[in-house]
Amino acid sequence: MYSTFSKVDERAAGGSSIFVKDNVIHSTVQLTTDLQAVAIRLSLDKTITLCSIYIPPNSIIDKAKLKNLTDQLPSPFILMGDFNAHNPLWGSKTHNAKGKIIEDFVSQEGLCIFNDGSNTYLHPGNGSYSSIDITICDPSLLLDYSWRVHDDLCGSDHFPIVLEHLFTSAQQRVPRWKLV
């Protein structure tokens, strides 16, 4: 498990984590950022970088911080997490300042968004749904994965995001021989 947390009154608050199966070859990516982000390199059918991020609701984000973060991620990468950003581009009914900043950043950097407009969050206080969890990637990865929102909250107020690789690697195939 790889994690980072903010400290509020000497207790963990917010934060982001990545859990990896023991049989997956992986290593940590050291990040120099004040964002709540953690990253690893994974060897699947090809080596990719996965970065998980949490941006608190009342925090201010700027493109320079996002650029600094993505510049530290070896390509190709997937950046996913709770951005607390609203934009119709990924399914929100409204815009907010964070949503506009992230939209501009994705556009300027030539990145792609996996989101299909599905709701990713259920507000526990008023029961409203929104799309504040975003999955961003290098264009070279967009067609390699399917993206969907799990239909069970699993005890959270955020629906789990499921990214599935669309192609099996040669190592996962059952060997076959044709004997003549």
UniProtKB/TrEMBL annotation:
<protein>
    <recommendedName>
        <fullName>Endonuclease/exonuclease/phosphatase domain-containing protein</fullName>
    </recommendedName>
</protein>
<dbReference type="InterPro" id="IPR036691">
    <property type="entry name" value="Endo/exonu/phosph_ase_sf"/>
</dbReference>
<dbReference type="Pfam" id="PF14529">
    <property type="entry name" value="Exo_endo_phos_2"/>
</dbReference>
<dbReference type="GO" id="GO:0003824">
    <property type="term" value="F:catalytic activity"/>
</dbReference>
<feature type="domain" description="Endonuclease/exonuclease/phosphatase">
    <location>
        <begin position="48"/>
        <end position="162"/>
    </location>
</feature>
<dbReference type="InterPro" id="IPR005135">
    <property type="entry name" value="Endo/exonuclease/phosphatase"/>
</dbReference>
